[in-house]
Amino acid sequence: MFGAFSTNHLIYLLDGLLWTVILSALAFLLGGIAGFFVMLARISRFRWLRRVALVYIQIVQGTPLLIQMFILYFGLGVFGISVPPLAAAGLGMMVYTSSYLGEIWRGAVGSIAKTQFEAAECLGLTRWQALQDVILPQALKIATPPTVGFLVQLVKNTSLASVVGFLELTRAAQVINNSLFQPFLVFGVAAFFYFCVCYPLSAWSRSLERKLNVGRR
Amino acid sequence: MSVAVKLTNVVKRFGELEVLKGVSFEINSGEVVALIGQSGSGKSTALRCINQLETIQGGSIEVCGHRVEDPKLDVRALRRDIGMVFQSYNLFPHMTVAQNIMLALRRVKGMRKDEAYEVAKPVLAKVGLSEKIDSYPEQLSGGQQQRVAIARSLAMQPKVMLFDEVTSALDPKLTGEVLRVMEDLARGGMTMIVVTHEMGFAKRAANRVIYMHTGKVWETGGADILSNPQTPELKEFMAEEL
Ligand SMILES: Nc1ncnc2c1ncn2[C@@H]1O[C@H](COP(=O)(O)OP(=O)(O)OP(=O)(O)O)[C@@H](O)[C@H]1O
Ligand SMILES: [Mg+2]
């Protein structure tokens, strides 16, 4: 009664992997852009804007990503807004990414001494120029390892998109397993694919961190 | 002689803590004033109020025609007229010496790269560091970094320079090289307010000394008040400094 794991299954899984990568890249790109604005809001001169950003971050980080996706996919559906799986998953992952990257980057900007800002402002630079030319280039170095580290979380968490019917790697594995009933094999292969994407990323993150520490000595 | 900086009854509070309790003084163009006093007496705060790194709660400050407490003040225009050098140098570590000096020339004065470079070269020569133009701050000694910081400020051709304990982090030899640059500057007619614990420098270079105590101007006069203080507080302060 068990079918054999064939090349077709493998291709199906690889196709799922491709969508996992696409979803991750999309979430990282859009979430990164949104996260940049979250970071700007968090360091704004206006207290209300800092508050709004903080509340946003706390809500997003204080609720499960799965629930956020359900809300986007099924919740909006109730109002007659039909959301295709890619959009629901992409939007959910983007919101999730923006809050985490926003906070990682704010930490990096915050770790640059306030006196650097002051020195730039004393020279007549605007706050924005100071941020651009003085603060961000320094913060970038500090922010890169944790950002790459977060990317690993992101890739793994795209598996949650399977619940809104988005056919990525995890969903593809489920579909195959439903016909083959060989969970160890099928999910094992899926796990291996995830690992192939995530391991180089976390290794890269670690090596960046080492380089950064050496540079600072 | 025209007045470059004028503080009138300046009050500065951090929350409940009143740090400046009605500070008034006037500094003429070309004058070099040493601002001295115990730790916590409000010297740094007074300097920071002058270029609006801190906003004041009372009184008024006028710098080269700018009303600093005016809500409509053009802060960038104010800061174009004021240079400030800090105890901790605050060079931009990711930029070379040349880039440190050229940044504001390009971004604030809108100069082209080659124009800015032509400005950077002579100011760097003035502080005796021509050969370090392509070095990064971390490759320089503290004294050299501080001289670059001074050059970076000077390149913007400020009308007033503020120095906040710029030699406090340096050993005596390096202190000397920075003080020499400042004395040169003083002789060149720059208007300077110098917060310092270097009484030797104050005696040599300052036209006037302002002694601050507990957030107030306590005693002021020529450099001779250092050897001949009028108030018991300054007398005691001088005894501690020796
Ligand atoms: N940002 C701030 N928030 C709260 N209090 C502050 C702040 N900056 C300074 N103060 C307080 O104001 C007082 C005066 O500080 P200030 O730095 O002006 O003294 P100072 O005369 O420069 O001393 P020092 O010789 O140690 O540099 C101190 O009691 C200090 O704790
Ligand atoms: Mg001080």
Task: Please give a structural write-up.
- The complex is a heterodimer of chains A (217) and B (242).
- Chain A is mostly helical and 217 residues long.
- Chain A is built from eight helices and no strands.
- Chain A has a single domain, classed as MetI-like (MetI-like fold), CATH 1.10.3720.
- Helices cover 82% and strands 0% of the residues of chain A.
- Chain B has a single domain, classed as P-loop containing nucleotide triphosphate hydrolases (Rossmann fold, 3-Layer(aba) Sandwich), CATH 3.40.50.
- In chain B, α3 crosses α4 (113-126), α4 crosses α5 and α5 (142-154) runs parallel beside α6.
- The model of chain B has no long low-confidence stretch (mean pLDDT 92).
- Classes of the chains: A mainly alpha (217), B alpha/beta (242).
- Adenosine-5'-triphosphate binds next to β2 and α1 of chain B.
- Residues 14, 17, 19, 37, 39-45 of chain B line the site of adenosine-5'-triphosphate (ATP).
- Chain B: One of its GO terms (molecular function) is ATP hydrolysis activity.
